[in-house]
Design brief:
GO terms for molecular function: glutathione transferase activity; maleylacetoacetate isomerase activity. It holds the Pfam family GST_C_3. This is Glutathione S-transferase A-like. The chain is of the alpha+beta class and 226 residues long. It has 2 domains: 79 residues, Glutaredoxin (3-Layer(aba) Sandwich); 123 residues, Up-down Bundle (Glutathione S-transferase Yfyf (Class Pi), Chain A, domain 2), CATH 1.20.1050.10. It is built from 10 helices and 4 strands, in the order E-H-E-H-E-E-H-H-H-H-H-H-H-H. The longest helix is centred in the middle third of the chain and has 25 residues. The termini are far apart.
């Protein structure tokens, strides 16, 4: 099973991390994997393009099946290995509905986070404007407020869709962790901070923690004042 899988990935990439958490949760350790460098443009190499013509990471192959989009790959693994490892889609219709809702809201969260922390990466120097970055920061602040409120409403010790760890956590936790890596204030967002602190001890998340974060635990301060 896992021996038939190949993952090309980048350290610290939330889409890659989502898939790696899912693989751990489904007890699919031992898959073939290769760490590539975004800085060296290795995601545009022929090795990646052969699997993923978009030249993006993750690039994931299981036998003859290719599923590169991280959400799609997580759904695929849960469907294909339903009875293996941990169940990632709740039985309760209400909890399941909330899981889907939070998963897809998570894409907006990820997009708004990237617009701030990677602003200089994505926007050429001549096209950068302080007013645009200010708008991006305001949008991210509003987004963080939503997630803080979601967790507050669910209560202490809850996961994103209720009492069960689910695909909502698999897909959104890497975005939350990235926010704290870039200096998000735990005192300002106590419920997000408690969620982050609890889940980072989960075996699947510890096993897939970005290696360069382990090498350099000190993050950045981009979000300190958000």
């Amino acid at each position: 099973m896992a021996q038939d899988m190949t993952l090309l990935w980048g350290s610290g990439s939330p889409p890659c991390w989502r898939l790696m958490i899912a693989l751990e949760e489904k007890s699919l350790q031992g898959y073939n994997h290769k760490l590539l460098s975004f800085e060296k443009k290795e995601h545009k190499s022929q090795e990646v393009l052969d699997i993923n013509p978009r030249g993006q990471l993750p690039s994931f192959k299981h036998g003859d099946v290719i599923v590169n989009e991280s959400y799609a790959a997580c759904f695929y693994l849960e469907s294909r290995f339903k009875s293996q490892g941990n169940k990632l889609i709740p039985e309760s219709p209400a909890e399941q509905a909330l899981m889907y809702q939070r998963m897809f809201e998570g894409l907006t969260f990820y997009e708004k986070l990237n617009a701030v922390v990677y602003y200089e990466w994505y926007v050429p120097e001549g096209e950068r404007h302080d007013s645009a970055l200010k708008r991006n920061k305001e949008a991210l602040t509003a987004e963080l407020g939503l997630w803080e409120g979601y967790l507050q409403k669910l209560g202490q010790g809850s996961y994103l869709a209720g009492p069960s760890f689910s695909l909502a956590d698999v897909t959104v936790f890497p975005t939350v962790a990235t926010a704290f890596r870039f200096g998000l204030c735990a005192e300002r967002y106590p419920h997000l901070a408690a969620y982050h602190a609890a889940l980072k001890e989960r075996p699947s998340i510890k096993a897939s923690w970005p290696p360069h974060w382990l090498e350099n635990p000190q993050g950045q301060d981009t979000l300190t004042h958000i």
